[in-house]
Amino acid sequence: MSVWNPENVTDVAESIGIASLNREVVEHLSRDVEYRISEVLTEALKFMRHAKRTTLTTQDVSQALRLLDVEPLYGYDSTRPLRFGEASIGPGQPLFYVEDEEVDFEKLINAPLPKVPREISFTAHWLAVEGVQPSIPQNPISTQSNAELATRGPGANSTLAALSGNDNQGVKPPVKHVLSKELQLYFDRVAPAIMDETNEDYRTAAFASLKTDTGIHQLVPYFVQFVANKVTHNLKSTFILLQSMQLVAALLENPSLYMAPYVPSIVPSVLTCLIGKNLGSPSDMADDVHFALRDFSASLLSSIARRYGPTSSTLKPRIARSCLSNLLDSNKPVGTHYGAVLGLTFIAGAAGVRSLLVPNLKAYDAHLQRILFDNSTGLRRPEAEFVVRALMRALEVLEQDAVAGMQNGHPEGQALRERLVEAIGEVMGAAVFESGRQGLANAVLEKDLAV
Amino acid sequence: MAQPLPPSRTGSVGPPSAGGMGAPPASTPGGQGPNSQQNLNQIVLEYLNKKGYNRTEAMLRKESHNLDPNGQPIITRVGDSGGKKWSPAFKLVKHWIENGLDIYKPELVRLEWPLFVHAFLTCVSDCYYDEAQNFFKEFRGEFEEERSQELQVLAKIHVPEHVQTNELASVYRREKYAVALSPMAWAMLVEFLEARDRDGGDVIFATLTEHIRVVTFNRATTARGLQKLMEEKESENKRGVMWGGEGIPSHKPGSANTDPNASSALNKLSLAPMPMEADLMEDVRADLSHDDSMHPPAPGQSTLVDQFEKTIKQEPQDDAAPSRDAIPFPPSTARDVAMEVQKVRENRDRFKIEGRTGGVGPGVSVTMFTFHNTFDSVNCIEFSGDNALVAIGTAESYIRVWSLDNRALTSPQDPPGFQASSSRRLIGHSGPVYGISFSPSAALPEPATNGHTTSAGASETQPRYMLSCSADSTIRLWSLDTWTNLVVYRSHNSPVWDVRFCPHGHYFVSSSADRTARLWSTPQIAPLRLFVGHDADVETIAWHPNGAYVFTGSGVGDKTVRVWSVTRGEQVRIFTGHTGNITAIACAPNGHVVASADDKGEIMLWDLRTGEKTKTLKGHGRGGIWSLDWSVESSVLVSGGADKTVRVWDVQPNKEMQAKANGENGTSAKTDGATTGGGGAVSKTGKAKGPVVSPDQISCFQTKKSPVYKVRFTQMNLVMAGGAYLELA
């Protein structure tokens, strides 16, 4: 009848030596056990509620037992969930028990101490400003489910709801972004002019205007969008890509434009032009035209990082990270590697080269050797030379940064070569050695000493 | 319904069948067998016939009809069928209520719950175990929505001992449950029960008289007319409308007087602010005029002195103020003067929240403080009145205090060279800490002197003490100057759920699982008053802003909000109506309205003067509204809860509702009806999605996975909210 199985009562009675128990008594007892258990649970729920939790813990139960003047059960803690094992004592008669692992005392003592949990800390953010929930990462993204939170009624403020994105009536923003006729015309003229391959004068005039015009701030988002569009759809044309980059450069150069809010949308396009997989048509590939594009993008990126890096703490690390991951991906073509090396050099500077590039050179060496000396891919050799040159340039940055004449008695000749090879791999080691510049070699090796 | 029931174990009437029905006839010794019984009848009949006692014979024949062939009595009365009688009897009255007149339905429906409880409890007490369980299972669904927590408690009751020991059951058995009926409905009910006497009417009637107190009063004369009742019923639910005085502590609506014969007039409360000491007032005025001369007010601003005079003159016409003699306080100090001056300045300079203006709710700003890496061990969060400190009470028995502005928390007891950090750990309790309260304080503005930086250190109006309460049934007083424990208050004998400092300091109240709330003063280690009366845990507690009254809210089994007079130590108001555990209470700064919230997601507003419920605010999800607070102008209520939202509510009484209640001209009522009809349609479509949100909600702000433990309006009307981020779930 009751949820509590009367057989359990019989079992317990047998275990303490009461062999035969009247059926009535057993039933009565099992009803009583059930009542006591739920009594404990009711009390435990109270403790859960006052701890403002939604999960019941073993701690709550032992508190409840204490409150009810029952000796608490020892040996259960809340840090890990109890695991229940199941054993069968007959067909359709499962028996559940708490799994109790045997712990080797020796092992327990010698086990390393668990990690110290992180300190409790707090952060503050605006949940609402004058009735509007700002869309910042700390607040949940307003989704469809929010719609039902909005209310209609005498007290409801529909404007507030709309501003919070909580209105489900599909209200359009009351203020439209209005572009004047002149600006529209300006955009319609300038955009094609820049992409005009045939008329050089047009292009220069357009860029000149973009660089100096003071009244085109409203158009910036359109140009940014334009660039993003062109770059994604014209990966085969180095000309268009180059022009797009020029356009970005022109906008950045304009002193009257405030570009900081658009940087996050510009960077992906520039990065594409820097480390894209296949830039330009196959004929361009042969001409190495795309290296020029990569060079330009790299310098553009470095100027962006210089100007906006200080205001956005994540900008530089993000770019550096994507460059590095592309460099270490040996499936990517040489062009990508070239761009990645350039990007790293420009973005991260000497410190970055030392900490990010040099430690990885040895690993990269294997890949470089394969491209350089594998005859079956003879055609890629000159391309690889570009990478070597770029890496050399990166290492030169190190040289400039290093304090001259730090040590005496540096190794010479073959010893130096061996150490270089050991530090930065066969190809680059040889290249540095052959350059014959002691300062460069020292700068490269300095890292070893520093470490 | 009237068909005879098969005989079974009968309770009050009829002997238990010792021989059993399966016993073979004529085998029982002593001539008690059915056959011999029939033979005996036959013999008697023959004898009567022979003697010519015709009438006696007829009577015997008639009466022996009620025996079945086996000689067992045929039960025609439901009331005689033992444990089985409850189900048909309850069904009978339920059916009648549901098919009865619509105007009485909302009243009569309220009878079902107490009848159900008592039917079940009586059934268990009479040892009809299986019948009781069947009865419970059959009808519990009816009450699941409103009474789920009580049902959980009742479900576990199996044997008579449980009825006696269980708190909820014994409360129901001991006290009478009050239900209000209009005289007509009551008369109809009695008439019906008497007519259907044999079908279980007498069973119900007995229960009614024994355990339920039916209060008859004429609704037509009250503001809550029947018409209104029906409208509310349609918009709310089919469970009818709870009358203000319904429930176990049977009392007049709002009133704390449990004497049924008491007049329904409520005694007056002193709701005006506590008057200021004369000396203090002089000092404050002098300080303010000095301030005015130093910083002349900006154009359009009133001087601080004027502002001060205005606040003092605000003496309400009909509210008495509590006297300072009745509630003595220590003499005021320079610190009190500084705090009062700051209050006046804030009164002038703050961002005013005027309530609904032009049909649009005000926009409120909320700063959220989210605690990380807590592993759900934070039990409570509390901000200090000067907005400089935040404290958390943890399940690991310690309290941790941070300064919100990253200022180092120094102590004169620090060893030299000690690098004080911006947080302190207070260790002393031996059980989870459930409540924290800072002593009153005020935020002093930075002195705007050029170039001069304020000396690193605390301002003179910072909070100096903090109280905490814990499952170890103690309350501790901590010094915030030395960060040490000063006093341990022991008197409660169960976990202490909540503790609150008086708005003027010096006194504090605590509430506990021992069903009492206690009033203390900080210098004394024994309580000054015991507030006894709740039938369940006192879950939460709040002060009236003038310090003369205390509000307590309790859990399942009671679910009332009670108002206690500090001076006399007795209850002055009882508010009934919550359907869940009361989790938070807050009184408006103007002293007239108190808001209480429960863990079913409802907030109710009560008018202290009339003792009536003015509003029910719905919208929060289940799981508890942990905190409530009012804007300084008492125009807006803000709440935060386990559903990870902070909500802002309009508390002004609905004009439409008022218009309806006043029974204005028909046209306006008609238009109102139309609009409510529209609203009903909207809520109907919304119902499919989630909980109904009442139209009084101004806005709702969701957090990311952080249940909101505390919301607080600063003196400048900025909302501070605190919560713990939960990675899981």
Give your account of this protein's structure.
The complex is a heterodimer of chains A (451) and B (729). Helices cover 59% and strands 4% of the residues of chain A. Chain A is mainly alpha-helical and 451 residues long. Among the domains of chain A are: 6-79, Histone, subunit A (Orthogonal Bundle), CATH 1.10.20.10; 180-312, TAF6, C-terminal HEAT repeat domain (Serine Threonine Protein Phosphatase 5, Tetratricopeptide repeat, Alpha Horseshoe), CATH 1.25.40.770. Chain A has a two-stranded antiparallel ribbon with strand order 1-2. The longest helix of chain A has 40 residues, at 334-373. With 729 residues, chain B is an alpha+beta fold. Chain B folds into four domains: 86-238, Alpha Horseshoe (Serine Threonine Protein Phosphatase 5, Tetratricopeptide repeat); 278-320 and 333-349, no CATH class; 366-412 and 421-444 and 460-654 and 696-724, 7 Propeller (Methylamine Dehydrogenase, Chain H), CATH 2.130.10; 655-695, no CATH class. A five-stranded antiparallel beta sheet of chain B has the order 3-20-19-18-17, with no helix packed on it. In chain B, strands 5-6-7-8 form a four-stranded antiparallel beta sheet, with no helix packed on it. In chain B, helix 3 (86-99) packs antiparallel against helix 5, helix 5 runs antiparallel to helix 6 and helix 14 (304-313) crosses helix 15. The radius of gyration of chain B is 32 Å and the shape is elongated. Mean pLDDT of chain B is 78; it is low at 1-33, 233-238, 448-458 and 656-690. The chains are: A mainly alpha (451), B alpha+beta (729). At the A-B interface, helix 2, helix 3, strand 3 and helix 5 of A face helix 6, helix 7, strand 4, strand 5 and strand 27 of B.
